Amino acid sequence: MGDAQGRAGRRARAAGRIERRRLRPMGIWSRHHRDRLKGLWRRLRHGDSRERPYRLPQRIAAPPTRAGVALVAIVKDEARHLAEWVEFHAMLGASAVYLYDNGSTDGADALIDATPWSVPVTRVPWRSFDGVGGAQRFAYAHALANFGDRHRWMAFIDVDEFLFPLIDPDLPTALSRFEAQPAVCLPWFNFGSGGHRERPPGLVIENYRERSAFPPLPGQGSLLRFKSIVDPAAVVGGGSHTFGYEGLGYAVINERGEAAAPWEIRKPGFAQSSVLRLNHYFTRSDAELAAKLAKGRVSRNGALVADAYRRRLRAYGVGVERDDPIQRFAPALKARLAGLAPADPP
Q1: 113: part of which helix (H) or strand (E)?
Q2: What is the domain-level CATH number for residue 246?
Q3: DSSP-based three-state secondary structure for 339
Q4: Is 50 within a domain?
Q5: Would you say 87 and 60 are in contact if contact means Cβ atoms under 8 Å apart?
Q6: How far is Cα 199 from Cα 207, in angstroms, rounded to an integer?
Q7: 191 within some domain
Q8: Do the domain assignments include residue 176?
Q9: Is 151 contained in some domain?
Q10: What tens digit of pLDDT does each residue of 13-64 get?
Q11: Does pTM surpass 0.85?
């Protein structure tokens, strides 16, 4: 009995040594294995399903009546910012907005329902129900499965992100350039606090005009993320930022129609933003960033990892520059908001 156990133990130890040699050829970690270890560490910290894609049970229909650009966002305690965000995108041609309310306590639900928006806004109650943290991924799957057949395009972005055309008058015109693609994915242009300690009055898009460098400088790789605008009929599954497409798989597709796996997005020249722009106001003021950290992130079921934001802020500080392309829309947006009731969100 003892000898058998001893032999089994020796075999297990030998197998372990062989496996370690496989993973560490000649005692040197390859880049591939370092990346695998980093991915394992992230999964251990944040949960196995953090980026595990879901799969839709069936393809979304593509009836000839579908048209327009819909926005899908999951929100939590964003009442102060909803009017600017919704009306900005309505002004640029969005035909529908779907807001998944992740248990807001600031009156956002009543505000959404009571405001006479200039675009149809659908509020979906969406409290977290998955213990690992899939509220955002499941909200996107729900939107695709239930509303996807109504729209030519669906953009999956957050309320701190503003999508706009750089050269065309509106979003539908800009997106018509990508008819041959199943999606177009846009990199973040990350804006910091601009020195504001407290929330300033006025528009987000006017108050914050300093962003990190693009393309990112060395040390800013953590700031390079993409968000997706998809043809719902081409989607077979997805995650929070990235989706899977028939015949292509789980991919990020840039403005040139080039597809890359999510771990390949840092390839030089891959990130493109010459037709459309996605401004990401990831901090707003210092006080608002503190509130964001306190409330948690819906993609993690409320368990936001604060050190990830600290790393992002350090990367942001490596190099910043002024950015004004979105300012051309500010006067029309102000006029639009002045005629909207209720004018002052809670």
Answers
A1: helix 108-114
A2: 3.90.550
A3: coil
A4: no
A5: no
A6: 9
A7: yes
A8: yes
A9: yes
A10: 444 443 333 333 333 444 544 554 455 444 434 334 445 677 887 888 889 9
A11: no
